[in-house]
Amino acid sequence: MLGLGVGTVSAHEEYVVDDEREVDAAEFLADALTDPLVVGPLILGGVVVLAVVATYLAVRPFGRDVAAFRSAMGEYEPYVPWLLRISLGIPLIGAGFGGYFISPEIEVNLRLLQVGLGFGLLFGLATRLVALLALVAYLVGVAIRPTLLLQFEFVGGLAAIALIGGGRPSADHVLQRIAGTPGAMYARVDPIYDRARTFQEWIGEYTALLPVVVRFGLGATFVYLGLGQKLMRPGIALSVVDRYDLTAVVPASAELWVLGAGLAEVALGLALVVGFFTRASATVAIGMFSLTLFALPDDPVLAHVGLFGMASVLLITGSGPYAVDRRLARDGRTPTDVPAGDRTSATADEDCSSH
């Protein structure tokens, strides 16, 4: 269980420490993976997780609870575009006024650009265009400063907004409603109403892929943070352990802290990418973010808002298509305590109710 405990704090290490230990990654991994006091708890933690998953799949408990939860989450689906817009718009505005570009590590003052894009997302005005412009700005920034990969969730989040549009409430929805009203003055001057409707009809066939886009964006971010900020760069992770005296919080070696956190992030990221227990994985992600904000007070809140929002979206939508959860739903045994009318919706914890 110790291996599980040390893997629950996830942070953008570069945001909370200035100095990095000079540690060779290969040497660190070789030493740590030959230490029984490091390997033992990690193996034990992995076995416990696998046992819990296997037991759940064999027994399929809480059928009614799962069905009720998924039904309740389904009621929030109309607000998913709004949730995404807020989750990406607020960090952009904060970055603009904070004097950095998306990541606190990139001290470049692009206030007008980021504040404009951020408010465009918040208001839902020309939402898809604004999201694409923000995505292009991010990708250009990554090409110049790869450190921006710390906020890789912006790729998945902005791509998801570009896919699904502004939704409601949004300025786009209001303007489109007015433009479609016969006799309205605005309808006479609106230049894009007909084109917008044609585009929406075309892209509507692909909006079911929204959970897939969010899964890949959030999962890839976790994998990068686990590999790039911990397993392949243990020096900076060890500095975080030293700064916050984490070995006193949980009686484990610094090596176990780093390996446990890194492996937990990689495993969670891969689970999200393949859509394995998606809602449960999203819940774990939210728990990790929340714990980080309390355990590491120097970790900037705005750096996590997009992550919170994307994990919350997956709680609402579930895995969507192209996910292991769908296979588990087809192959799984229907819980016997669920009424016949509810069995389809309760056979799997993670199957998305509407996608």
TrEMBL record:
It comes from the Archaea. Keywords: Cell membrane, Membrane, Transmembrane, Transmembrane helix. It is found in: Cell membrane. Coiled coil: none annotated. Its main location: membrane. GO terms for cellular component: plasma membrane. It is a multi-pass membrane protein. It holds the Pfam family DoxX. Residues 331-355 are annotated as: Disordered. The chain crosses the membrane at residues 38-59, 79-103, 115-141, 148-167, 208-227, 266-295, 301-324. This is DoxX family protein. It comes from Halosolutus amylolyticus.
